Amino acid sequence: MQLAARVNRIAISPTSAVLAAAEKLRAQGADLADFGPGEPDFPTPEHIQRAAIRALEQGKTKYTPTPGIGALREAICKWHAAQFGSSYAVPECVVTVGGKHALFNAFCSLLEKGDEVLIPAPYWVSYPEQILYTGATVVPVKTEESDGFRLRAEQVSRAITPRTKLLIVNSPNNPSGAVVPSDEFVKIYEACRAKNIWVVTDECYSHFVYGDEKPWSLASVSGSKPNIIVIGSLSKTFAMTGWRIGYALAPEPVISAMIKVQSQSTSNPTSIAQYAALEALTGPMDTVGVMLAEYLRRRDRIVAGLRAIPGVTCVEPGGAFYVFPNFSAHLGNGIADSTALCKQLLERQHLVSVPGDAFGTPGHIRISYATSIDRIEEGLRRLEKFCSMAEAAR
Ligand code: PLP
Question: What's the 387 CA to ligand 1 centre distance in angstroms?
Fold first, then answer.
């Protein structure tokens, strides 16, 4: 069958492929140590659920305006201003079907063949595929494990060419958990602004930062608005992955273009989910702190456990809920790469993880600690067992 070239340019999400294989095993009754999920293991807070039920009971089940209900767009602008000190108005905001959709519509609005897009590696799996779909070219910018995978302005400057159109920064990062310090982020932004390059800042994990770091947005930098596109999501911050609500904040012409794309594809995000999102952004946020404290406890346990496995190195993540340990020392001897490693971990230990190859960083695996401490202990036991058996077989 002759499919369109743009579809042949992209691949199905490798994280979904891993999760599908794990689901098959689970259906057969396997007891999985599941380090796969890219979503909080906490339920959506009750007051948010109730708002959705109220919306349903009040018959708010019809089309809404394509860019979202006015009250939600306003709430997003106000919430972002209160959390980060930004200053967006409703025409500079669009509500989307998750952050992924916001990214897709932004790329469709800005990119075309010949444009180069800088993507710091390790990167979230959807960035390169979405870029390739538009016909633009992906330019990975390698960050260093020895530097905690933090993106540096000089790495960005070195990768810029006359064709560079856009840089994506994802801090805290999926999969590494790295947080770009705000002073470095400003330097990165200045390097881009000097060359008229867009900075897309993916703030999906903004509220999950540890230690001295505080939630921070590039949009708080005065004068940055003309050069940046903020991508946000309620998925992780409010444990609302299934509701599919995200947003973009950007100069009005970009938002208008995104709304045009949206008006001819998905139309509005689900009406009921929008009312739930309105409650999330205007109601209490104490559940965010509860999740953060628990993630911190788990991070400390899992980093210590991974570092105790001979041959494994593990950067301490500054945010999000992933660790990205280096298993290179355990490759070879029948395990060609991290994809093969994850496959064997699943088959032999029923342990679910995602290969670093998918994130542009071979030799590593992504482990999500959005799971209970008990399951983390069990997973660590299985990892240790696998590594010592593999070592003995050498
Ligand atoms: N950006 C990053 C870095 C992510 O990890 C994800 C989801 O895993 C998203 C964006 C999109 O999230 P959603 O579409 O659920 O808002």
Answer: 31
